[in-house]
Design brief:
single chain; about 425 residues; binds beta-D-galactopyranose
Amino acid sequence: MRGYLGTALTTAAALVLSTSLVKAADVEVLHWWTSGGEAAALNVLKDDLAGKGTGWADMPVAGGGGEAAMTTLRARVTAGNPPTAVQMLGFDIQDWAKESALADLTETAKAEGWDKVVPAALQAFSTYDGKWVAAPVNVHSTNWVWISKSALDAAGGKAPETWEELVAVLDAMKANGITPLAHGGQAWQEATMFDAVVLSLGADFYKAAMIDLDPAALGGEKMVEAFNRMATLRSYVDDNFSGRDWNLASAMVINGEAGMQMMGDWAKGEFLKAGKVPGVDFVCIRFPGTQGMVTFNSDQFAMFKQTDAGMQDAQVQMAKAIMDPAFQSAFNVVKGSVPARTDVPDTAFDDCGKKGIKDLAEANTNGTLFGSMAHGHAAPAAIKNALYDVVTAHFNGEYDAATAATELAAAVEAAK
Ligand code: GAL
């Protein structure tokens, strides 16, 4: 009798114990956030999920802009083994949704009112066929310049506001014996700079060329001018730029070797990780001539369809965690981006972050907010890649500006 009771109690105790130990399924997260600043931001997400009982299986695929990550993703899906959650940009989300590969998050989105707080420009990518298929974690933008404060002071102290002023500052930095422009020679980095250069020739021009893919804009005089500007910028880059990762280019500015970097605001994450303070150690400006305009990209997490109920639940938990306003503040403060929700206060953000939030809202109101071509928010991957090829070939001296513009129009037309 005693023995029986004892056994029963032990069994009950074991049951309680095992229930409390049951862990929600781990989400396997494929992402390309491997630089110091990116990893720091990713940890905010990992820790948040851990606090809510959702485990994390890490699947990093290094390579800024996510091209390598997207290749790995394709291989995993083809092998019938998609990751649970994937960092994804713009048109890639739409492409996977079209293939019916993504889980439907609409029920969660409705319950949590995402449609009321996520800007329409982002919803255009987070939803497909009226259903939510991704949770946006941030908004980055590509038309920024990150300048070393001491290098700027030595070059006269005034942040450039026009193309001519920019060239004058770059010249002064060169005369001061530093590399004026820190750049990593990878196609996506050249394309990132190209976003800003095209935008600096006018909002209408950016829209016509990059969004509407108008052959006249892609191959016309203004595009020749854009390539001339790219060639001018190329002349301020050091000899060892080829293949350099973007975060190593950021490091050149951080350690005083270079004057400035033209890069999306994920670069700010590197400055912050290195303990640098905006306004004191570095200055953030919009690429000269693009004040009041924003070329954006939003990192979103798409969930690949799963049959296991525990896994589906973990996906929902992750999507909810991403959309939590307090999380969006904590994460984006570290990442360098701004929240994907419009109801997150800017109080925790530094001056560059506050400017980013304000610029985004204003550009949205003024009709000067455009998807970034370089980061998959202007056109699908096939067109983006065609553009990468021409921009990088020109940057590496294979084409003169006029030939590049002709090639650009032809390459985009062929990829359509
Ligand atoms: C972008 C992405 C950013 C940042 C950057 C460099 O495409 O949106 O979050 O990670 O690549 O890796």
